[in-house]
């Protein structure tokens, strides 16, 4: 390049010498340059042919040569770049026209391609739409074909099953119309022809399983005339027994009325129309009552056993078996069947104890059974014997007693137990008239009496609970003289001071007291009802009444009172009223003694007379109520304490006591005023009421002091300021003022204030900060801070 530039620029004349010199220098430089050119060519070829990761050492070799070598390399590199650019430009010029022609052709094809793409897309869309409908129709056709095949299969199976169902329906119609022979033929066809065709179906298997049972039913129904007769007896036994017992009850009522008119203690033995012992004999061995002059149903025909039961089948069968010489077989079969029926009659219904009708039906069947047997015994010759009827009766009597013991224990209604007792008495009187021994039935009545008393106690427990729940636990207001007399007629209340007061006035007890007293008397009347018709002596009745009344007072009423005092809704006012009520009920026990004495005419001074234990019952209830007063009062104090919201980090106190504590003190004042209404009409009651009030007040103050102390020593309380101590001191001062105000009279000196002495000494120690005195006098009996525990003081000091 230098040579070329020098050649192009003609040197002037005066510079020829310099040009010659430059040419020499250039020739020398060219010789050196050729070496560099060869080296640079090698480096460029190496750069072009090797990987870019290995270029570093190659480039470093350039800088390791002479100082200006890299400049010459850069010039060589630029020349190589320009050479490559010219080659690229030549190649581009050579291919440019072909590239332009290709682009032009491509632009022409693009329009056709877009048009073809649109046509293909539209064709695809129309094809998809047409195919969707075809697919849906194809699926519908497949579904219809499946349904058609299923319907055809169902019709085919139904055609196989319909004859079986028709034959079974025909069988049911034949059984309902009692065409038993045709029914058997139908069953044979079902088993041999129809059921095997469709035996794999469940309903056919059930039919096949029912066919043997249907055959047994047909066989049982097709019994002889004798079995029909026995069935007829079983059906009419309850009606026969009902008639016999109704007539026995009528005679009993009639004889009782005659006995009262003649002042006779015991009525004569009743006579029954169904018994053979009546006045008029009938040719068939049954008897009727001709004396119906005073009966209101005198115009009605009195039914007998023969009127209710057709005995002709047994007569006819007995005659036939006797003629054939097989009478013994008939007798054995009849007695065997009657024993079975006796067991069935003696088997009670599971729910017999629920209604009196269940018991009445049971007794009617038993009485009817033995009335029929008595008729058979006397109307036939040797079919049954007295020994056979006695054996049946002894078996029945044991079963009856066991059944009545079991079912009477399930009875919870005293009226139902009383009805059961009346039914037992009527049943015993009825069967006794036919010559059956019934002494064991009367012995059973003593057990039923105990059950009757238990049901009465349960019933009166519910009555007492209802009375207590409906009571308002406030004194009875009396507006007029008539209201006062109405209350005193129901309850023996006598108080000269209240009687002197003008109307309106209030009686100390609440409404539940006369109600409880009235219900106790009703209980005694209910207990008395059971002794009717038992022919017991007055002494036995008196003993029974007193024992049952004692159970009512000591168990039932006592339990109700205990539960009442523990109910959460019973407050302090109600508990105070309960104490008043129990006091008046305790005073009324002597009037209950007189009430029983007036009923039985047995003096309470008699040696064997049972005394009433009501006094201890009401004392225990009163003590329980007092205990609940103390408990509920402490619970109420805890509720107020929970409202305390001390700011333990306050700098100074508010200068007045906390609101929650003032509310608590006001509550305690009003509560202790209620205790002034406790009965104090005599010295015993006055001392009792004062003791209850003092104990409650002392318990409340101690509990309040303990709660306040626990609040100071609470482990969750970490820090207390002196301002909080001062505020707490103001609250304790209010408690001490309350204790010194004598909220309940009767405390000696500052006895009540001693409940807060522990708090007072502890707070004084911190308010005065008199630690030197505390430490100096510690352990001394006359120490100023004797009640301050070191651990308590240390715990508070740390806070």
TrEMBL record:
Keywords: Exocytosis, Transport. Belongs to the SEC15 family. This is Exocyst complex component. GO terms for biological process: Golgi to plasma membrane transport; intracellular protein transport; vesicle tethering involved in exocytosis. Residues 76-245 form the Exocyst complex component EXOC6/Sec15 N-terminal domain. One of its GO terms (cellular component) is plasma membrane. It comes from the Eukaryota. It holds the Pfam family Sec15_C. The keyword Transport applies. Component of the exocyst complex involved in the docking of exocytic vesicles with fusion sites on the plasma membrane. InterPro entries: EXOC6/Sec15, EXOC6/Sec15_C, EXOC6/Sec15_C_dom1, EXOC6_Sec15_N, EXOC6PINT-1/Sec15/Tip20_C_dom2. Residues 441-799 form the Exocyst complex subunit EXOC6/Sec15 C-terminal domain.
